[in-house]
Amino acid sequence: MASVVLGNMTDTLGYIQSLIKHAHDPAAERALAQCAELYRPVVKFNIPQAMEAMQGGKFGFAIYVLGDAEKQTDSCQKGITNAGADDESSVAVTARNKLVKNLCDVAISVLKSLMNGL
């Protein structure tokens, strides 16, 4: 499940980076750049660390990291919303943020079940 989260976050980061290159609105460009800054460390470091922790049976740490990834998507979304962008690209970023958040929720639920021996 963490691999699915990582894949979706990586795709979303790539999508955001491509939008930044073509942004015409300075507020939208700043919001997208903020999203990229939020996603980048999660994709490069945090989720891979969570995956490593899961392999070592450290489910609590993995849950913490996935929860943090979820918070980063929330922060990205707040920036997009506050920028007031309502074009097609902001709608797509919103949908991607929601998907990543939902995937994190599922991964966390699975890990909690494993911790509880279910």
> What is the average per-residue confidence, as pLDDT, rounded to a whole number?
91
State the shape: elongated
Q: What is the tally of helical segments?
A: 4
- CATH class (first level) name: Mainly Alpha
Q: What is the count of structural domains?
A: 1
Description:
The chain has 118 residues and is mostly helical. The protein has one domain: Invertase/pectin methylesterase inhibitor family protein (Butyryl-CoA Dehydrogenase, subunit A, domain 3, Up-down Bundle). It is 88% helix and 0% strand. The protein has helices at 2-22, 26-55, 59-83, 88-115. Helix 1 (2-22) runs antiparallel to helix 4 (88-115). It is elongated.
Topology:
Blueprint: H1 2-22, H2 26-55, H3 59-83, H4 88-115
Helix pairs in contact: 1-2, 1-4, 2-3, 3-4
Briefly say what this structure is.
This protein has one domain: Butyryl-CoA Dehydrogenase, subunit A, domain 3, CATH 1.20.140. It is 88% helix and 0% strand.
Summarize this structure as a short list of keywords or feature phrases.
single chain, 118 residues, Butyryl-CoA Dehydrogenase, subunit A, domain 3, mainly alpha
